[in-house]
């Protein structure tokens, strides 16, 4: 893999579309760029597993971003089903606790035992959403301290549960790596290329800044998906990172 392709493979494009036909239009424009594709709730609930399989058949790595959060047995079953889809990354909410996160891993491993041809997905946990501000954390969610303290605490519990990493804002990457080790993966949304609108994000960095912090993957949505020329938008980001 060339350095350019390696950089592209660490960029996750958020396919935040209401239907597959719109996502396919973007795929046509990005053809040949080996980026990761992130399928979230909107698209998955509209199109189901068929579109995930379609992405896999096209050769993409897929992060199925459904943020499982329920009693441990339910999360175990859900993670098992998702693993059988052949996705490359899945996630749960760290707020569900260590037992729930460990149950997710159990569901993944049982799916792999049942079908050894499957590749093991990267399993990560959401710490705090990038839309979570200090005021929201303290006064609405009811967790004291800073957002960063909460994120690092959740990351430690995620590692304890045997997961591979966490979703966190780029502002917390260094602290997470320090607390959990450099091989503990960080996936960072809240990425806005220089000059992009912030939208509903409050804790953001440019892609270059995020990688300088040591993150493993960046998630980028609207700066690519609603750009006048999405291919040019992602190629400009890749160029900045090479």
Description:
The protein has helices at about 5-10, 20-30, 40-45, 50-55, 70-85, 100-115, 135-140, 145-160, 175-180, 205-210, 220-225, 230-240, and strands spanning about 10-15, 35-40, 60-70, 90-95, 120-125, 165, 185-190, 215-220. By secondary structure, it is an alpha/beta fold. It starts with a helix and ends with a helix.
Q: What's the helix-strand series? A: HEHEHHEHEHEHHEHEHEHH
What's the total count of β strands? Answer: 8
- Give the overall form: globular
Percent helix? 40-55%
Strand order of the largest sheet: 1-2-3-4-5-6-7-8
Low-confidence stretches: none
Distance between the termini: 14 Å
Helical/strand content category: alpha/beta
**In percent terms, what proportion of residues is strand?**
5-15%
Mean pLDDT: 93
Number of helical elements? 12
Rounded Rg: 17 Å
How is the main sheet built? 8 strands, parallel, barrel
Comma- or semicolon-separated keywords:
242 residues, 15% strand, eight-stranded parallel beta barrel, globular, alpha/beta, 47% helix, 8 strands
Q: Could you give a short description of this structure?
A:
The chain has 242 residues and is an alpha/beta fold.
Write the layout of secondary structure elements.
Layout: H1 3-8, E1 11-14, H2 20-29, E2 36-39, H3 41-47, H4 49-57, E3 62-68, H5 72-84, E4 89-93, H6 98-114, E5 122-126, H7 134-141, H8 147-160, E6 165-167, H9 173-180, E7 185-188, H10 207-212, E8 217-220, H11 222-225, H12 230-241
Parallel strand pairs: 1-2, 1-8, 2-3, 3-4, 4-5, 5-6, 6-7, 7-8
